[in-house]
Amino acid sequence: MVAIRGTLKGRDVISINDFSREEIDHILKVSDCIEKDLDSKFGLLSGKILSILFFEPSTRTRMSFESAMYKLGGRCINMGPTELTSVKKGETFSDTIKVISKYADVMVLRHPSDGAARYASEISDVPIINGGDGTGQHPTQTLLDLYTIKKESKLEGANIGILGDLKYGRTVHSLVYALSMYGIDMTFISPPNLSLPEEIKEDLDDKKISYEECERIEDVIGDLDVLYVTRIQRERFPDIMEYKKVSGSYKITKDMLEEGGKENLIILHPLPRIGEIDPDVDDTKYARYFLQTKYGVVVRMAILGLMLGGFE
Length: 312
Ligand code: NCD
Known about the structure:
Elements: H1 21-36, E1 49-54, H2 60-71, E2 75-78, H3 93-100, E3 106-111, H4 116-123, E4 128-133, H5 139-152, E5 160-163, H6 170-181, E6 186-189, H7 198-206, E7 211-214, E8 226-229, H8 240-246, H9 254-260, E9 266-268, H10 289-307
Parallel strand pairs: 1-2, 1-3, 3-4, 5-6, 5-8, 6-7, 8-9
Helix pairs in contact: 1-5, 1-10, 2-10, 5-6, 5-10
This protein binds N-carbamoyl-L-aspartate.
C-alpha cells in the first residue's frame, strides 16, 4: 500500500474543487492498490459506521457505498425513505443532520438542493460526503469517472466529449472541473437549452482550458477518445413541456460507433440511462459503463478508508 497518511482523514468531500490534482491522483492510486488486493482490506474499518441519508432516489451511489463499507469490515445505517422518518413530521434538515451525526463516523448525503451538503458539513459532528446536491456536484462519481478513464483509456492528452444534459447534470459539473485540473480540452455536446452553465464556462476560460460546443454527436464522434453520456434530468425541469421538447433528442447506437468512432473510443455513463445508449452498444468493445459501476466500489473504499484513517 502506498503512503496515504493524512490525505483525506477527517475531511469532508463536498466539491471536487476542494481537492488538488495531487490529492485526486493520490485517491486514484489508493483505489488501484485496493483493486489489486481487494481481499486484504477486510477489517480495516471494523467498528466504524457510515450513515446514509438520501433525500432523493439512488441505486448506485447508495449501494456502492454500502458495499464499500462492508468490504472494509465497517457497517452502515440507512435513514431509508424520508416518509418513514421524522422528516415527515416536520423535523428540520439541520436537526436531522445534528442527530444522525451522533450515530456514525461519517455520513453520505444526497439532497435535491444545491449547497445542502456544504450546509450539512457546517453543522455535522462527523465528515460529510456529498452524494449529489441538486444540480451542484457529485464528487465521488467524478473520482470513479476519472478512475475509469485512467484505467480504460488515458487522462493526459485525451479528447473527451460530454454529451447530454450539461445544464442540470451534477456529475457533468464536477467532472468538468476535475478534467480542467488535468488541462484536458473538452467537447460539449447538448441541445442548445441544456448547455453548460455560463459560470462553469467562465471558470474554464479563466483557467485557459479550451472547449468546443456543438449540438450533434455525429459531428464530433470521430475525434473522441472518451464519450461521457448523461441522461436528461427530467426532475430538474421547472416546466415539463421544456423537457418534452428535448427528450429523446440523442441516442448512441452500435452503428454510429462502428461507422464514426475511433478504434479505441470508450463510452462512459454515470447511469441510469433512459434511452440515450441503445442496449446494442452494451456488448461492443466501446462500452465501459457497467465496468464503471464496478470501479465505483473500489474508489469508494479508497475514499472511506482514507477519510476514516483505516489505512494508516
Ligand atoms: C447520477 C446522479 O444521481 O447524479 N447518478 C449516479 O449517481 N450514478 C446521474 C443521474 O441521475 O443522471
